[in-house]
Amino acid sequence: QDHILVEGWRSTVSYTPNTELDYGTLLCWGINTVGLQRHPCVFHVFPAGHPDPVHNCSMYNLSVTTVSLRCVAGFDGGLPQTFLLELYESNSDRLLANTSSPVPVFSVAGLPAGMTFTARVYSFNTKGSADVLTF
């Protein structure tokens, strides 16, 4: 009861898991003069972790000096994630571009024409980074 705050038609519960046993499912019901809520509100509480790697990436040239890349995001680990693209010249492993995005879609312009590139894509959140996908 110490963690429940009722203000008029609004109720708030504060819940902080302290051990692994505190994660799981929380259920809540409302009641008023009409009766008890039939189906509870359901909240799943799980520990946050680092994100899963991106997958299904495709890279394509828009022009001789522009490369675009699109991937499918993996699970975010329960936290907001940021995506990174590192673009290297394949022969020398020289970093040509390093860009971030809130979604796994990138476009890099102004590249030297006629080169072969290696892309390294990964995401991170406050718990860590995903495995790097290189292609």
From TrEMBL:
Top-rank taxon, per record: Eukaryota
Entry-linked InterPro entries: FN3_sf (IPR036116)
Protein name listed in UniProt: Fibronectin type-III domain-containing protein
Gene source species: Cherax quadricarinatus (Australian red claw crayfish)
